Amino acid sequence: MSTPIKVPHMSGVDSFTPDPKFITEVDFGESVPTGNHAEVIITGGGFSGICLGGLLRRRGHRDFLIIDRNEDWGGCWLDNKYPGVACDVPSHLYSLSFELNPDWSHAYGRGAEICEYLKAAAHNEELDEHYRPSTTMEEATWDAENNLWHIQTPKGEYTCHFLVSGSGHLVDPKIPDIPGIDGFPGMILHSARWDTSVDLTGKRVAVIGTGASSIQVTPAVAPMAEQLIVFQRTPAYIMPRIDPAYSETKKKTYRRHPDEMQRERDDHFWQAEALYGAMRLIPAMQEHVKKLTLNHLDSLVEDPKIRQLLTPTYTPGCKRILISDEYFKAFNRANVTLEPSALASVEGSTLVSANGEHYEVDAVILCTGFTVSQPIYAAHVRNEKGETLADVWGKGGAPTHTLAQRGFPNLFTVNARNTGLGHNSSVHIIESQAAAVVQALDYCHDTGRTVLEPTAEADKAWNDWLREWSRDTVWTSDGGCSAWYVDDRTGQLTAIWPDYAYDFRVQNGHFDPAWFDMG
User: Fold this and answer.
1) Each residue of 318-361: pLDDT tens digit?
2) Is the dihedral of CA 509, 514, 517, 519 positive or negative?
3) Beta strand pairing status for 148-153 and 99-100?
4) What is the per-residue pLDDT for 25?
5) DSSP secondary structure of 429-449
6) What angle (nearest 5°) sits at the alpha carbon of residue 112, between those of residues 107 and 113?
């Protein structure tokens, strides 16, 4: 993959939004940190870290570091190496608006090329000198006396005035607590921690789960396995995946005319926005989704009994609506079995389903998702009182305008609570928040402010609005299913933004001093 096209004066927000204040670079007279202290430290080397770093440098900021638990750029796209890994958002929409890529291979990017794109974007934005790989944030504690965050890592302590969490949602695998699984004598793999040395050829394999990774793993593993059993607790609504390869002529056009890429990006964005109507339970959109997905199912699965087992009965959108042309076809294979219930227990090499069926297998693939509502990093970020982000979030707290958590000064939370989307691109969300962070830092430079923390009034107003606006959506209504979008400790919608993606940028894509107490 060639280096993405660096668009000099794009702001990190799409062309249909007002220009933010940081388009024109300024010189703050900063130098790149050489030690373990920086004005700003960002955690994570994926989309969030690269986007924030790129916008900071474009604005003229240099006094920042990006610490990453991984050994290289890429975030979750470096972690995810399972067979068939790909994105379910169109390539030109699932990319940074200021690092357009003319060389995507297909309409939907493959995992390895997304990872390479992120590495190229980081190099293009001159972020390598700011990058500290294999530097896990083990603990972060706010020092109110000195207005500093103290960050413990395997490579020593780092300090900063502003800490930006860019770790994301889909990071730490969720391992199900299944009786007997610790005694399984074969291979156990999680989709997000794949062992590329494992050969599943001729093996009896079980896939646990039917979510976004399972529908990619299943058709990729089926041809090599002797037998494949898919444990399905809940069937998924799956839409067609229109995924043509881009011709060399098309790529050449994109290289010569970046505005064509932006136009395609905008088209994909607004097409995706139309799907939000289903999340608001608009009958016409609900019927459209049902018709499209069920016709897709009927056209690809030969056995009517299997089709029935694969047919969802809950409200579309309650769980993520998926895209695939290959998943349903896998169930036409003689070596693939659909087990329409969850994995209940493991007895040696025998898997026992909730329906009481027994299967002898050599390998188990866990496609069981991530610890979204209880991210591991949240338990390691402490304020001056000793409270952790996990403590606050476990009681229903949410960052004000998704950006800053009251009680945790000088902490910005990017791609954290209420920032996920069930219908559009998370990169749009990340760029919106990154714009707000840069504006906040500009404000501090301009005014000499050293501490930012949401006011009690702004925090209450935001949380009240968020809970009210989350009502009467598919995720909070009785849609016939439960999903990881809702925190089971509080019953609150915490993973998903409950509105149009465009409205997220209107509400949260800027910094407003009125939201903050100033120090």
Assistant:
1) 999 999 999 999 999 999 999 999 999 999 999 999 999 999 99
2) positive
3) unpaired
4) 62
5) HHHHHHHHHHHHHHHHHHH--
6) 45
The pLDDT of residue 405 is: 97
* Tokens 């995946």, residue located: 241
pLDDT reported for residue 2: 59
Give the residues across from 351 on adjacent strands. Answer: 346, 359
Amino acid at 150: H
d(CA 280, CA 17): 24
Measured between its terminal Cα atoms, the distance across the chain in Å is 46
Which helix (DSSP H) or strand (DSSP E) does residue 101 occupy?
none
Which backbone phi and psi does 161 adopt, to 5 degrees? -85, -35
Residue listed under structure tokens 């830092």: 441
Structure tokens at 265: 């990006």
- With 0-12 / 13-18 / 19 or more C-beta atoms within 10 angstroms meaning exposed / middle / buried, residue 239 is middle
Residues whose CB falls within 8 Å of the CB of residue 407, separated by 6 or more in sequence, listed in order: 383, 385, 387, 392, 453
Q: How far apart are CA 465 and CA 477, in angstroms?
A: 17
Where do the DSSP E strands lie in 217-305? 227-231, 238-239
Per-residue tokens: 353 = 């389903």
**C-alpha span between 474 and 485 (Å, rounded):** 11
Q: Which residues of the chain have pLDDT under 70?
A: 1-2, 7-25, 479-480, 519
Nearby residues of 7 by Cβ (< 8 Å), 6 or more positions away: 97, 98, 99, 100, 258
Strands (E), 327-418: 336-339, 343-347, 350-353, 358-360, 363-366, 381-382, 411-413
**What DSSP assignment string belongs to 244-268?**
PBPPHHHHHHHHH-HHHHHHHHHHH
Please tell me the distance from the alpha carbon of residue 493 to that of residue 499, in angstroms, as a whole number.
12
Q: What is the pLDDT of residue 12?
A: 40
Nearest-5° angle of CA 487, CA 51, CA 430?
30
Q: Is the pTM higher than 0.90?
A: yes
Question: Which of 79, 82, 49 has the alpha carbon at shortest distance from 66?
Answer: 49
